[in-house]
Amino acid sequence: MSGLCNRVKSVLFVQNGSAILTNKRFIYMKHSLPKTFVLGAFVNLTQGDFEFDIPIDQISSIEDGRQGVSKTILIYTLDGQKYNFYFTKREEWKIAFNNLIQK
Question: Which residue has the higher pLDDT, 30 or 62?
Answer without folding.
Answer: 62
